[in-house]
Amino acid sequence: MLPFASTHPRTSRPALVFAATLLWSGASVAQEIWAITESGAPLQGTHSPTRVIELDAARRIEAELAAGLPNDLQQAESILRRRLKAGGPSLQRRLQTAYQGVADAWSLGITTLPAVVVDQRYVVYGEANLDQALARIARYRKEHP
């Protein structure tokens, strides 16, 4: 597994992203494990990620809000306003969390799903088994202290 350079979208400075996994003993224990995926492709395994980011969450929420809206723009706007109001703070939190997840994945330069990210420094792409992804990072970190 070789590190590869990418450009951080906000700073345009090179950032290293490593295809790797996590060491569960000693000082190398991961503080944060993010599972980045889509709703139809959950990750499996015995470990629980600190955070699950479903990149299609915002689109699903928007589809819920737009479901069954009439073609008449004034009627549709009125119905949508009622739905947004009825959703209240809970809906606002869901939307905020969904869009924050997209922003966080983008800021890390995630290019492929699923992705397992450890400590916002190591990433394994394409592995749907969280345990196996974490084992790969552990091996990498052990070999490259």
List the helices and strands and how they pair.
Elements lengths: L2 E5 L6 E6 L13 E5 L13 E4 L2 H10 L6 H36 L6 E4 L3 E4 L4 H14 L2
Parallel strand pairs: 2-6, 3-4
Antiparallel strand pairs: 1-2, 3-5, 5-6
List keywords for this structure.
145 residues; elongated; 3 helices; 6 strands; six-stranded mixed beta sheet; alpha/beta; 19% strand; 41% helix
What is the C-alpha radius of gyration, as a whole number of Å?
19 Å
Tell me the series of helices and strands, N- to C-terminal.
EEEEHHEEH
* Sheet with the most strands, sense and barrel status: 6 strands, mixed
**Count of discrete alpha- or pi-helical segments spanning 4 or more residues:** 3
Name the structural class. Answer: alpha/beta
Sum up the overall morphology in one term. Answer: elongated
State the end-to-end distance.
Answer: 14 Å
Average of per-residue pLDDT values: 83
Please give the order of strands in the largest beta sheet: 1-2-6-5-3-4
Describe this structure in words.
This protein has 145 residues and is an alpha/beta fold. The chain is 41% helix and 19% strand. It has helices at residues 57-66, 73-108, 130-143, and strands at 3-7, 14-19, 33-37, 51-54, 115-118, 122-125. The protein has a six-stranded mixed β-sheet. Strand 1 and strand 2 (14-19) form a beta hairpin. Helix 1 (57-66) runs antiparallel to helix 2 (73-108).
